[in-house]
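Quarterly update from the structural biology core.
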Amino acid sequence: MSDRPNTPLLDLVNRPADLKQFSDAQLNQVAQELRAETISAVSVTGGHLGAGLGVVELTTALHAVFDTPRDKIIWDVGHQCYPHKILTERRDRIRTLRMKDGLSGFTKRSESPYDPFGAAHSSTSISAALGFAVARDLGGVTPEGLGDAIAVIGDGSMSAGMAFEAMNNAGHLGKRLIVILNDNEMSIAPPVGALSNYLSRIYAEEPFHDLKAAAKGAVSLLPEPFREGAKRAKEMLKGMAVGGTLFEELGFSYVGPIDGHDLDQLLPVLRTVKARATGPILIHVLTKKGKGYAPAEQARDKGHATAKFDVVTGEQKKAPSNAPSYTSVFGKTLVEEAARDDKIVAVTAAMPDGTGLNLFAERYPSRCFDVAIAEQHGVTFSAALAAGGMKPFCTMYSTFLQRGYDQVVHDVAIQRLPVRFAIDRAGLVGADGATHAGSFDIAYLANLPGMVVMAAADEAELMHMVATAVAYDKGPIAFRYPRGEGVGVDLPERGDVIEIGKGRMIQKGARVALLSFGTRLAEVQKAAESLAGKGITPTIADARFAKPLDRALILDLAANHEALITIEEGAIGGFGSHVAQLLADEGVFDQGLKYRSMVLPDTFIDQASPADMYAVAGMNSEQIEAKVLDVLGVASIGEKRA
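Predicted structure, tokenized:
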């Protein structure tokens, strides 16, 4: 316990209501202790540090002023919710963050009544808060009751259209609703776009709330005939001060900007809003990501996501890597291809580092586009780049590309535009849990006419797939690869162009054929080694393509084996379903083939290590081996069903 920070006041807080006993000066001390406790906890678990440190004072103030869980605080994305979790009856478990059977790294309804709405993707909080506000006014019932609805949204999240769709609706409905714009001048990457510049401009001017208060006071002192002119002057004054006009046009009262690290500003503003707000109100709060911890403040990403670290030095304890990560192999390969082809451009949605495009952006800044948290726009933008004769690589996490699915269908697939979708974080990702798992992209892309869908089995295959995507111009093409390091295979000088729809044979065997799609191939090979010791040598093939399927390869495997098993890191409805459809159409099942498809289970799997998550999914080498033994009827007697 000696390495834990000294937190005498925080130790008295078991639930948010306990904050009401403290004076404002004591709340300042609580905030300092909360920051120390957050740093200490994340040093043990790893996780999202910078975002939480930026909202320590705001979290303290919100829980001191409002009455949670009756009042609903909705943290957009949820990266910043660790201090909130410490204050809301979860401090005793905070050192299990992002671990198996531990606390989620995001807000989660099933975890606590203080998390009224789950979030791990951005820009949803205002829509959710408005839903709670309307439910409250229509007599909705929840176990904790329904009070105020407060959305805390970052300036990065405000770049997504959904936030403005919600504000437009909220302004129209006029319900009492509180939106706190947490403006830290960066989301994960430094923020991009006109809105970010607009917010920067607001607080480069005079403090807007002072001007506004003066104008309001002045108008009420004037006799009636002069008030109209004064009102016009006030509008002009508002225009001069820049701030808030955009939000006020959307129907929100605007307060700010205020210093989000100064409880002497935060507490009175929040108390006033709680006492007086009638319609929707936006409070503009300025914060610093990583605030109060020098190593995070000095990091380029302000300590967005860290491994376990030493609290004193900030030095991260990362395990030595045996092989390059898939992400870095993709980034380097794309840069090399771009050197040979000036039509290659790259598009990402606020994740240049996470997708490996930071390398591309450094080398070819005019050909790399970070569209901010706006996947729908990113996909359609890529479609038009393709229509304009460029070769766009639309590079997004599988789980984030889901946001742009309508655009993938309408703007890309129907028009057969050659957009190259580079899909990172395929399969189960570990500590971020179900919200970040790339479970569905095989199924949601492979059902689109004219779409080519590939999955790399290792990092060398990924290089070949980048080269294949560069060369393919007949329509959209996608390739997927997981988070984390590769298998450690030798990398070629340059990727080769693969024949579209052509798989590869890995080893020839008898009785059972294992057809792998993606990076489970290494586990399949491990299972085969173990089976060899039991006298079974399976045939192994790497499909490479879920669409178009290698018909000749699949039908040959089916004709020459008793059993065929497909393995993929995706949900039901993907590769295995397409193989089953082919076999059914060709009448193969009529000949008595035994067919099994290993897919992710029909559940959302909670965070753990990737190996643990795949064990839950039943897709590690031991389980692949068991599946082979079962289908061949040679399982050990102890395991046989009665």
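Residues 202-223, 236-242, 637-642 have pLDDT under 50 and may be disordered.
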